[in-house]
């Protein structure tokens, strides 16, 4: 509900890097950080409001909104991190599939349209069960800090 109500949205919005959580995330101290892996141009971070456990976002460090504004090098590293994210999540939690995607612009569903991010959402058969429909809630059986620790260890052990 914090995400939907916007209660954690900065006063100036997300347009400027100073208020953008994707610009701030790489500098967040380790105990509070949700960053799983860091590359030269992009990083992987757990979604603070995940659809499922292990929901990662692949973000360029650079504050850029549109996919077509990425450099060739950023595009390649986003793709490489997306592939590694899928491999790592598979090794840790054995999902049955994935949703991958970018929402370009607020009208397309981007909650933070000012900073491009690729969603890597693990999916399991039955994860869209009756709970969201009947109880208006989603069961996430893992704390973000625990998920981060598992994924960080697996990412470090993997190759890009």
Explain this structure to me?
- This protein has 160 residues and is an alpha+beta fold.
- The chain is built from 5 helices and 5 strands; from the N terminus they run H-H-E-E-E-H-E-E-H-H.
- It has a 5-stranded antiparallel β-sheet.
- A hairpin with a 3-residue loop joins strand 1 (35-38) and strand 2 (42-46).
- The relative contact order is 0.19.
Summarize the structure.
This protein is an alpha+beta fold and 160 residues long. It has helices spanning 2-5, 21-24, 72-93, 130-135, 144-157; strands at residues 35-38, 42-46, 56-60, 97-101, 118-123.
Q: Can you count the beta strands?
A: 5
Main β-sheet, spatial strand arrangement: 1-2-3-5-4
Which structural class do you get from the secondary structure elements? alpha+beta
Main pleated sheet? 5 strands, antiparallel
Element-by-element helix/strand order: HHEEEHEEHH
Give the low-pLDDT segments.
Answer: 1-5
Number of helices: 5
The end-to-end span amounts to: 35 Å
Proportion in helices: 25-40%
Radius of gyration: 15 Å
- Kindly state the mean pLDDT as a whole number? 85
- What proportion of the residues form beta strands (DSSP E)? 15-25%
**Tell me, what's the shape?**
globular
């Amino acid at each position: 509900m914090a995400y939907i109500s916007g209660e954690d949205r900065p006063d100036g919005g997300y347009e400027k890097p100073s208020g953008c959580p994707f610009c701030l995330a790489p500098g967040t101290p380790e105990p509070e950080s949700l960053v799983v892996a860091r590359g030269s141009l992009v990083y992987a971070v757990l979604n603070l409001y995940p659809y499922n456990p292990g929901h990662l976002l692949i973000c360029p460090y650079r504050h850029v909104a549109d996919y077509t504004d990425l450099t060739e090098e950023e595009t390649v590293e986003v793709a490489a991190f997306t592939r590694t994210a899928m491999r790592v999540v598979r090794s840790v939690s054995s999902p049955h599939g994935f949703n991958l995607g970018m929402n370009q612009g607020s009208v397309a569903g981007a909650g933070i349209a000012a900073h491009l991010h690729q969603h890597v959402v693990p999916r399991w058969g039955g994860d869209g069960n009756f709970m969201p429909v009947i109880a208006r809630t989603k069961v996430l059986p893992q704390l973000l800090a625990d998920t981060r620790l598992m994924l960080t260890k697996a990412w470090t052990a993997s190759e890009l």
